[in-house]
Amino acid sequence: MNAPGKLPLMTRLVMLVRLLAVQASWNYETLMGNGFAFAIEPALRRLPGGVGGEAYRAALARHGVYFNAHPYLTGLAVGALARAELEGDTPGRIERFRAAACGPLGSVGDRLIWAGWLPLCSLLALCAFGAGASPLLVVLIFLGVYNAGHLALRAWTLNAGWEHGLRIATVLGHPLFRRGPDAIAQVTAALAGLAVPLAVARIVGDRPAQLAAALAVAALWTIGTALVARRADGWRAALIGVAAFATYSLVS
Amino acid sequence: MTLAEILPLAGLGALLGLDVVSFPQGMVSRPLVAATLAGALAGDAERGVLVGAVLEMIALGTLPFGAARYPDWGSASVVGGALAARAEVMSPGTLTLAVFATLLAAWLSGESMVWLRTLNVRFAHRARAELERGSRAAVHALQAKGFAADLVRGAVVSGTALAVLAPAVERLAPLWNGSAETERAALAGLTAALGSATVWMLVRGAPRARRLIVAGVAAGVILVLT
Hints:
The structure holds two protein chains of two kinds. Chain A is an all-alpha fold. Chain A has two domains: 9-205, no CATH class; 207-252, no CATH class. Chain A has helices at residues 9-19, 33-44, 54-63, 74-87, 91-130, 135-164, 169-172, 175-178, 180-204, 208-227, 234-251. In chain A, helix 1 packs antiparallel against helix 2 (33-44), helix 1 packs across helix 6 and helix 2 (33-44) runs antiparallel to helix 3 (54-63). Chain B is an all-alpha fold. Chain B has helices at residues 3-20, 31-42, 45-59, 73-86, 94-126, 128-132, 136-172, 180-203, 209-225. The N and C termini of chain B lie far apart (43 Å). Chains A and B meet through helix 2, helix 3, helix 5, helix 6 and helix 9 of A and helix 2, helix 3, helix 5, helix 7 and helix 8 of B.
């Protein structure tokens, strides 16, 4: 195996920016495979022979095939595999690792980000809206808090992947991934309780009877969902509900 | 709605549509942000954030897991924010019709993402030989094509939805029966119900989730009453 040396800061930055576009050519066959190749490519230029060399072309072709994971955690695999390529790991080992990383990086990221951090930040912004914040402040709170977590996670995972190489199980055992989702869910639960009455009050305005009715509907629906339903498919139900309400109001 | 009014909003829809999946997924495309930006562009950020808050409660249930089908709220929310902001008066029905128009646009945008992903498959097929040879130019070209197609997709979704739905909303709003107070209460109740139920599904497995929700509701109600 070759000593990989250090990955220059500029190369890491370019890879980080490219990771933001890892899904730009997402398709039903290779999913984010081409985006993966696009993100890892700056590191591959350091392979013997440089750009266009045999090692470079073989590695780039290897990384353009099927890959799917959470986009924010893809940097972990990109960093790890960049190191493996520069250390001269065998293609077979690299391909096995690449295939095996998809599942864990997808499920951990989905739970931490899509089902955790994103709803938490939405509810925080709804709290600000309900508390009477200006439109600009609501937007800044949401984007500021969300992207502080988002960008920090992308940068950290890319660096951690490079530092640990193919031993990323150590990184996936980090408390952020093990205990983070539950901690985020707890904050989300408290924020949801706070945000809904505040946001509904601002939408309804200073009308106590209407506010009480709206909150009662929300409470009863939630309790009903908790007791009976196994899933809540929000936007389709909203489309049907709003269409029914609009039709009634237009023809009655 | 004139072409001069639609074009900048379609441009905003293109950028926000791009954020959903392609670049940079910074969630500028969330309804609370997208509708507010569209409202500001159309002349009233306050109405934009109002529509955005209603839509955000609905969108809490949209989790963009992997290859699942989900709406592109970015391009769609531009429609709701702009329709609410450009109305001369926020008459009864305007808010609901703007939200309904957004939900229809979200449906269309969700379908358009499937078409885009199918188009990306065709691009990938054409470049397969080059990709298998490890061509850097082919990797870059595929990214650029996907990026450009997604921009066009967002612009077409927002622009078409505004061109079709703005006249419909203008015609239907005067026919609305019922007060603005009842309308807002019904809309807020419906969307808060869907949002709360979604959040419950997300947090129900967490330790002390019930107690934390009840504590949050108590704090929220006290804040509303004081």
